[in-house]
């Protein structure tokens, strides 16, 4: 299985939703096992961490984007502010 290293360089809260599989999440000072059905909240200040699967794993990684940058990108791509307001909110 392939280890994935995640650099949390933007210091954002992340969530890992474990859809299938098992393995370990490792960071600078420790490691812990994950398994299917769990949701992990990764603190913004954790820094670099890695996901080391023991078996084929499906993981959905999410984070809260920079909303101002997201709005600007959507506007640049031609979306109206009315469309943006329906999906991007504080």
In short:
The protein is of the alpha+beta class and 90 residues long.
Notes on the protein architecture:
By secondary structure, the protein is of the alpha+beta class. It contains two helices and seven strands; from the N terminus they run E-E-E-E-E-E-E-H-H. It has a four-stranded antiparallel β-sheet with strand order 1-6-3-4, with no helix packed on it. It has a three-stranded antiparallel β-sheet with strand order 5-2-7, with no helix packed on it. A hairpin with a 2-residue loop joins strand 3 and strand 4. The protein is elongated and about 45 Å long. The protein starts with a strand and ends with a helix. The relative contact order is 0.26. The mean pLDDT is about 90.
Query: Would you list the SSEs in sequence order as H and E?
Result: EEEEEEEHH
Q: Which CATH class of the domain at 4-64 is shown? A: Mainly Beta
Radius of gyration from the CA trace? 16 Å
Q: What characteristic shape results from the CA principal axes? A: elongated
| Low-pLDDT stretches | none
Fraction in helix: 10-25%
Largest pleated sheet: 4 strands, antiparallel
Query: What is the H level of CATH, i.e. the homologous superfamily of the domain at 4-64?
Result: Jelly Rolls
Q: How many beta strands in the DSSP annotation? A: 7
Euclidean distance between termini CA atoms: 38 Å
Arithmetic mean of pLDDT: 88
CATH architecture of the domain at 4-64: Sandwich
CATH topology name of the domain at 4-64: Jelly Rolls
Strand order of the largest sheet: 1-6-3-4
Number of helices: 2
Which percent range describes the beta-strand content?
35-45%
Structural class: alpha+beta
